[in-house]
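Reposting from the mailing list since nobody answered there.

I have sequence plus structure tokens for a pair of proteins and want to know whether others read the tokens the same way I do. The first protein:
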Amino acid sequence: MRYVFVHGWGFDHRFWQPLLDELQPDDPLCLDFGYFGGEIQLDLPDEPYIAVGHSAGSLWLLDHVTDHCAGIIALNGFARFAQSEDFPDGVPGKILTRMRRQIGKAPLGVLADFRARIHATEGWTGEPNVERLAEGLDRLLTDDRREDARRRSARLAWLAGADDPLLSPVVARASFPEESFGAVVPGGHLLPIERPCSTAAFIRECVERIS
């Protein structure tokens, strides 16, 4: 079965290379939001696939997966990110609001601060597409896909990092349905890069469960 990979905010399709090297999927499709001048590629395949999303990529997938999707695997992901009245476990909206306000003025600074916070040492070069990055922040602030997650709970799995500096595992547990398959493991917000071997093993286990 084909794999589709969707990166999170502030990255591009190159994010997946360490995990791809370990997982060795046949003909993987890595989507791209066009945050750094690359071609925007958000077309899902017209054939059965397993969708793997990192961080905000999982939020996008819950809103866009097609009937061909056999399962969704969220890595450092969530169905709701920002705090709200009915989601007190979320990340305070003021953080996103501040980033949204500054992204047009100093995109490189916002990106550098974000990457420092999540301990991202890989370089993703290219001219930042401010409009696309701002749209991504807007989605994080407003999107709520908890109902979509509930509808797909039997074919939904999630993996959270116990030491994630951006997203406490509490957010994943609170936003995903109890009946979904989830695990918390040592690591931060970049499990596909920090721990590609164990992340690939988790994906294989999930595929066996939902196949």
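The second protein, same order (residues first, tokens after):
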Amino acid sequence: MPTLAATTHLPADWRDLFALTKPRVMTLVVFTGLAGLLAAPVHVNPVLGFAAVLCIALGAGGAAALNMWYEADLDAQMRRTENRPLPSGRLDRQTALHFAVGLSAASVILMDLAANHLAALILAFSIFFYAVIYTVWLKRRTPQNIVIGGAAGAFPPLIGWVAATGRVELLPVLLFLLIFLWTPPHFWALSLFVRSDYAKAGVPMLPVVAGVANTRRQVFLYSLPMAAAAVAPWPLGLTGALYGITAVLLSAVFLVLAAAVLANRATEPAAMKPEKRLFAFSILYLFALFGAVAADRWLPL
């Protein structure tokens, strides 16, 4: 297994820098930010709208790169991350840091120029929250790292809305709350079947410090307010039936899968099929909900 101390740096290319941005995670971040912008009840100039979404992507990529720069030692100890550019030796830490800071600064400056000061301020805070509050302060210290740190990934729809309107309103706050509450069951479902990696690296994820049964219980309990936050915009009159029906149906499926996780008694990763199903569905769930909230604005029922 490669370690940072023993690794000889190999030639890097643009794909290694791109990998620092965690592109699979960034896809969801960008999509929710775009949905927040499209759901806003204003006309947005397409060029400025594109620039705002680009800024969200750059900011998310910069924050992810800062995370990977700081956590290179942890990544070297876990099977699912040991082949990332830094622990594998394809990229040196100084280059990664310069790239991360450059992306982060560029995203905030461009957002300020293309949209407004408030959107740029929230974007800057979201980068700080993920890179410092979550990565540096919380992740290695508390099993509540995902609970509090989930706020970092919840900012994009709020940023998209504020970039379009210049103000904070109830709907984007509820969308923020939805992602915030979605994050623990999503990540804890994953951590249940890769908990040995976290244990080896000394990361106090909930399954490592509180056990599998307690984590399954927390997955189900967090799914309840998450489902309520998902459905809430409809009865509050903030969205139409297209979003509302989608949210009710998808949240019902999510709760059924979370209940299956709660009922599972297996402790071996190979037998954790309910956890794997919930993790996979949770990604589809968020994509579908945010697609629906954007479509609801333009195709109201």
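Reply #1 (J.P.):
I read it the same way you do. The radius of gyration is 19 Å.
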